[in-house]
Structures are given as C-alpha cells and as structure tokens.
Automatic annotation (TrEMBL):
GO terms for cellular component: membrane. It comes from Deinandra increscens subsp. villosa. This is Uncharacterized protein. Residues 1-21 form the signal peptide. GO terms for molecular function: glycosyltransferase activity. PANTHER family: CORE-2/I-BRANCHING BETA-1,6-N-ACETYLGLUCOSAMINYLTRANSFERASE FAMILY PROTEIN-RELATED (PTHR31042), CORE-2_I-BRANCHING BETA-1,6-N-ACETYLGLUCOSAMINYLTRANSFERASE FAMILY PROTEIN (PTHR31042:SF140). Keywords: Glycoprotein, Glycosyltransferase, Membrane, Signal, Transferase. The keyword Glycosyltransferase applies. Its main location: membrane.
Length: 360
C-alpha cells in the first residue's frame, strides 16, 4: 500500500504542468507603481514648465519679437526601438532649410527598453524617462513629461503631436504643417478666450467618445464611486491615446492636479482599465469642450483587434492604395498619421515614401 508522502509527491508532479500552464493566465503581472519620488520629480518639471510661460509685465514674447513661425512638437512615446525612424527622417527632411525651424522632436523611451538612438533628427532628443506599463497611469505620466519638456524647451512650440513607435506619417511635413495652422473655420469653436489675442484660434485634435458600450465598465474599473466627486459618470470619456494638442491645452494637462489624483489610482479590473485613453479626453472635454475637435488625426484600425491592441498591418498589405485609404476620414481633415504597422513594414514603406506618402 502506498504511503501518504509518496501519494502527495506523485500528485504534485501531476499537477505541476497544469500550474505552469494556467498560472500566467490567473496571476496578474506585477503593476508598475508611480513612486512618491517620481511624482515629486514630475511636479517639479511641471511647475518649471508652467512658470516658463508666465511673462513679466511689459515683456515681449519670443514669438512676437522675432516674428518666427510657430512649431510642431513631435513627441514619441515608445518602449522599443523607433522602427520607422528612416520614414520619419524623410518626413522631417532636415536638408530643407525652410522646414528645419518648424518642428522639434522629443522621445520618451522606457528605461528598460535599452533603445538605440536612430541618429539624425532623433539624436540627443531623448528626455529623462521613467518606466511605463500598458493599461496603467504610467503612460499618462510619460505623456505629461513629454508635454512639459516640450513646453519648457521652446516657447514657439504651438502644437504637440503624440505618436508611438508604430506610427507613420501619411503626408509630407509641409502638408501636415499647413493642415494644422490653417484657420479652423468649419469646426471653429463659437467662443474662445481672448486672454492671448496674439495667438490664432486653434483646435486640439483628440478623440472624445461618450456613448461607447464599455464606458461604464471602464468608469468603475477602480471601484464604484471612486471617481467621485471630481469625475461624475456623465463627464467620463474614452478616446485615443495619441493626439495633437494646442499649447493652451498642453498647459491645462500639466497644470492639472485634481483629475490626476483620481486617474492615478490603481485599477481593480485591469481588463477594463486604460487610463491613458480616459484621462486626456475626460480632462479636456471638461475644461474646454469647445476647444477640442473630438476626433483624432491618427488613423487606427480596430477591426480584428487582439487583446486590446489595434489591427497591425503586415508588409504584404503595404501599397499605395493602403496609404490613400488610411488618409480618408469622416471629418474635414485628412488623417495625418497611421497606426499600427509591424516593424518589417519598413522596407515596403520606404519604397513608397518619395512617390506616394510624401507627395500628398
């Protein structure tokens, strides 16, 4: 007759493969926490950025004094190498002297990514970064660091475009610049603040959705009533993680403390919690609903999405027809950027760069 210790050992050996198989599905991955030192460090950066925009009485802004043109700050949020750096290098085309003074580049790379600098316009454009994790407020913090750094770095930065390593431009830089800085007559808000009369009236391009079926599940992902009173359910919004903000809205984001206290809370239901898709559209729709377009200029295909990730285009799908299709939107604006492409799409995209992508 078998003794009890032997039976127990035999049972453990039988169940070990099952434990190894199902444990990753049962146990949630360790969540990256925002530590108090990191939070204090960020607040210091945000305060410096806000102070840099306050001018003493009687002073003349750099924009007014030099009559220089406003710039676009391109902010790359990544946890891998910038796979499409060659495409972006052609987009910026630093050889064109009339374009060099119209943009800045900033990169937030996860410290654990061991990312290699692609050189060119990306050289020395890395900002002090902290660890990020999908479906966590660390992505909000990273985006806010990019915004604050860009605000502090150059007072001529007037638009702030957040993109990922999987994004590509769908038009030439000249087209993108003209699209953003043309008068927004069709969607122009009825009334805007006249506090900065020297600045033209502009919109931020950020997706703002209020009638999605998953809205309630996302709202209570941290627990019922946790978001109250700062964020009632009827003010909670969903939107794209990637956007283009005006300088005024960038400042609203880095000044905010009230909503951030709610959105940095840990999620109880991680599967329904995407803080980076909630915080920015909720904050800006509450602060300035007439100043946001409510749609994004980055085309993302959610058909056939997997595990919360959008559809990923493969090399076989890259064609002139795909580029032209990705540009088409339901608004008066063409999509300016496309997402999401697999890294091995680089070569076929480079083949289309001169004659297709940057000709329109």
């Amino acid at each position: 007759m078998l003794n009890a210790p032997f039976v127990l050992l035999f049972a453990l050996l039988l169940t070990l493969p099952l434990v190894l198989l199902f444990a990753p599905r049962i146990l949630s991955p360790k969540r990256v926490a925002i530590t108090l030192p990191d939070e204090i460090d960020d607040l210091s950066l945000f305060r410096r950025a806000v102070r840099s925009t306050v001018q003493p009485p009687g002073s003349v802004s750099r924009l007014g004094a030099t009559n220089a043109k406003p710039k676009i700050a391109f902010m790359f949020l990544t946890n891998t190498d910038l796979h499409f750096a060659p495409i972006w290098e052609k987009f910026f085309d630093p050889a064109k002297s009339d374009q060099r003074s119209l943009y800045n580049v900033y990169i937030h790379a996860d410290p654990d990514s061991d990312m290699k600098s692609p050189g060119g316009v990306f050289e020395n454009r890395f900002i002090p970064a902290k660890k990020t994790q999908r479906s966590s407020p660390t992505l909000i913090s990273a985006a806010r660091r990019l915004l604050a750094t860009a605000v502090l770095d150059d007072p001529l930065n007037a638009y702030f475009a957040l993109v990922s390593q999987h994004c590509i431009p769908l038009h030439s830089f000249r087209y993108v610049y003209k699209s953003l800085f043309q008068p927004h007559t069709k969607s122009k808000p009825k009334s805007r603040s006249t506090r900065f009369p020297s600045q033209p009236s502009r919109l931020s391009f950020i997706e703002v959705l209020s009638e999605e079926p998953q809205l309630w599940d996302r709202y209570i992902a941290r627990g019922k009533n946790v978001m109250l009173p700062e964020v009632p359910f009827d003010k909670f919004r969903i939107g794209s993680q990637f956007y283009i903000l005006t300088r005024a809205h960038a400042l609203k984001v880095i000044k905010d403390r009230n909503l951030w206290r709610k959105f940095q809370l840990p999620c109880l239901n991680v599967d329904s919690c995407y803080p980076e898709e909630h915080y920015f559209p909720t904050l800006l729709s509450m602060e300035d609903p007439k100043g946001v377009s409510e749609y994004t200029l980055t085309n993302v295909n959610w058909t056939g999405s997997v595990d919360g990730h959008p559809y990923t285009y493969s090399p076989a799908e890259v064609s002139p027809e795909l580029i032209r299709t990705l540009r088409v939107s339901n608004s008066s604006f063409s999509y300016l950027f496309g997402r999401k492409f697999s890294p091995d799409c680089l070569l076929p995209l480079m083949d289309l760069a001169e004659n297709v992508i940057f000709r329109g």
